[in-house]
Fold this sequence. Notes:
This protein is of the alpha/beta class. It has helices spanning about 5-25, 75-90, 110-125, 140-145, 170-180, 200-225, 230-235, 245-250, 260-270; strands spanning about 35, 40-45, 50-60, 65-70, 70-75, 95-105, 130-140, 150-155, 160, 240-245, 255, 280-285, 295-300, 305, 310, 325. The chain is about 35% helix and about 25% strand. Helix 2 (about 75-90) runs parallel beside helix 3.
Amino acid sequence: MNCRFPSKYTFPIVLLLLILSLSGCATPKINLFSFGTEPLQEFTIEGDGDEKILIIQVKGVIWDEPKESFLLSGPSMLQEIVSQLRKAEKDSDIKAVILKVDSPGGTVTASDIIYNEILRFKEKTGIKVVAVMMDLAASGGYYISLPADYIVAHPTTVTGSVGVLFPRWQAFGLMEKIGVRRDVSKSGKHKDMGSPFREPTQEEIDMFQGLIDGLNSRFISLVKKHRNLTPEALEQVSTARIFLAKDAFDIGLVDEVGYLDDAVAHTKKMTNLPKNAKIITYRRVEQPDDNMYNTSTTQLGTKPISLIDLGIPQGMMPQLQNRFCYIWEPGLEN
């Protein structure tokens, strides 16, 4: 049966679908493809020795939501990181892990879970971890790098941004202009604190700041624990500013400024591995012309899907609203 809408209905239908997709509330899930369902497999990037160095890619926004878009669905970044660490635990030939980080950060809890999982992995296995920062390793991206035994920043890396954000929309001014109001029945005066539909009280502003200060205090305390910073350096870091690689090295946030090859060489030296030690990674499908800079694990047509591609579709950006985040917000545009 050939079903067609009359042309006069075409524009309203398209407009309705667009509004639904932007709202994030009633978006129809038409996930025609799923990735991440194939089991992780080991692939050798270079080397032919028996002992191995595993590279784990971390790219994009750090959070625990499943990766979903209009056509694609897959496991969350957090799930993928943990899956790789669990797989590595079972391989006695793995002697070191390189965490390749390119992230502006993400939610507080997801960042903290990954931090803890890396600590747990190290304590359980005794395996050394080296963090390599690529384009961006800010806020939560730096947070998850802290457990590493050695941190290498690319010469053009942007890092730092040690701090907390609590982004939220405010719509009450617009509602007043258009004559709309929202009534709420609540059990306590603070039950709807943070609502975008009313102006916050000074008491609520102070309460939110207290929560932010508490989460920031944890971040700063972990920087103190893992990095031997001078009081002057810690004061700079505490402003939540970003640093270029050389400045981050000068104040002690990273241990070396170099390239991925330099990180591999240091990892081999640190763990007494031979030059021909295998560099491996976990992917879900074989990739042609594979190398350490490839972040893909499966192939859909001609478009690679990244194993831990934390970049999120624009329609999902509002989901970061009303969450406490260790994130450098301008990095979300990358």
